[in-house]
Amino acid sequence: MSNPFIRLEGVTKSFGALTVVEGLDLEIERGEFVSLLGPSGSGKTTILMMLAGFENPTSGTIWADGKRIDGLPPHKRNMGVVFQNYALFPHMTVSENIGFPLKMRGAARAETAERVKKALDMVQMDALSDRRPSQLSGGQQQRVALARALIFEPEVVLMDEPLGALDKQLREQMQLDIRELHRRLGLTIVFVTHDQSEALTMSDRIAIFNRGKIEQIGGPAEIYDHPNTRFVAEFIGETNLVNGPIRKSDGGTARVELAGGQEIMVESSQDYAPDERVCLSIRPERIKLRPAAGPANTLRATVSDIVYHGDHLRLLLSCEGASFVAKTDRSAQPPAVGAAVDLSFQPADCWVIRQ
User: CA 130 to CA 260: how far, in whole Å?
Assistant: First the structure.
């Protein structure tokens, strides 16, 4: 990016002897929705807290709109924050909670009332303006917290797992609501989550965190289809990981030998050393339970188990030298456990990860 809206340069954060973020560089464009995705303890929430001003970096710099902000207090950064527990004031009404940031900034009463009304309409909470947080559902509290973060028209909205306490159906609805607000208002959003599906659904780009560093950053399709590392492949969705040496490589294809001696053909324009060991990532939905014509890979396997998931079946398959998981819809009669099947997948569906 030539002129990023937010920029972190060489940011490190240590708590005593424990380093939770190490030498991190990250750039975010104005109006972009970027999710920080990773397991607990990977450093993503610490990054959010440093952006908000609640933590200071041990070293490195943070910039927003061309200005260095790592020395500014939170209230001078023009960033709205939505926490996982919503942090609503229990003694205040919905309207009072939403208007609190304007009150702290000394806004006039008439202006505050007008902007609170607009914020209530924006999150569809106008009918509940006089209720207190204890009288609201989790989803309603989340909407109030979001309206409070947006009411002073911040340049950036930071969200720390704000949907974590909601049930699945409400969580999915709120994902769509937040994405619509992002598009309609042109917000810059930095969203912390450990939920892979949530990140794929909502984000323009996803930064995969592991042990205080970004393993990969890119669009959802890029991250899902072309993981750079084994960690990314395993963390973003479900995948089959197959290890083996390269036995032949030419003309944009390569062959990888399994432990049982069978070979898998993959599409790859990379150059490999003789017998170089690689890891293949093959997504379960790419595997078909039928022989394939042409250059596709076909392996003989045995059905070890079948797991019902409502909208699809998850089949565990074992063959000589490898095991696979396949996902299939329920339109066809599935094979029985213990049955022999032919599984197939295209060379283009095998993504090579160098080890």
Answer: 68
pLDDT of 180 > 90? The answer is: no
The answer to whether the beta carbons of residues 227 and 240 sit under 8 Å apart is no
Residue 49 CA neighbour count, 13 Å, CB half = 14
Q: Quote the Cα angle for 327-331-335, to 5°.
A: 60
pTM for the whole structure: 0.89
Neighbours of 59 (CB within 10 A): 12
| Single-letter amino acid, residue 14 | S
**Counting every residue, how long is the chain?**
355
Q: Which residues of 116-128 are buried (b: 16+ CB within 10 A; e: fewer)?
A: beebbebbebeeb
HSE-CB at 52 with a 13 A cutoff on CA atoms is 21
Instruction: State yes or no: pLDDT of 173 exceeds 90.
Output: no
For residue 2, the model assigns a pLDDT of 64
| Alpha-carbon span 130 to 73, nearest angstrom | 32
Name the helix (H) or strand (E) containing 244: strand 240-250
Which amino acid, one-letter code, is at 267? E
- State the Rg of the chain over Cα: 25
What are the beta bridge partners of residue 313?
308, 328
Residue 149: which residues within 8 A CB-CB, separation 6 or more? 80, 81, 82, 157
Mean pLDDT of all residues in 67-85: 89
Domains in the chain and their CATH numbers? 6-234 (3.40.50.300), 238-354 (2.40.50.140)
Hunting for tokens 């990977």 — which residue is that?
A: 42
Q: Are 166 and 138 in contact (CB under 8 A)?
A: yes
pLDDT in tens, 310-355: 888 899 999 887 899 999 887 777 889 999 999 999 999 999 998 7
Q: With contact defined as beta carbons under 8 Å apart, do 195 and 235 qualify?
A: no
How high is the pLDDT of residue 276? 92
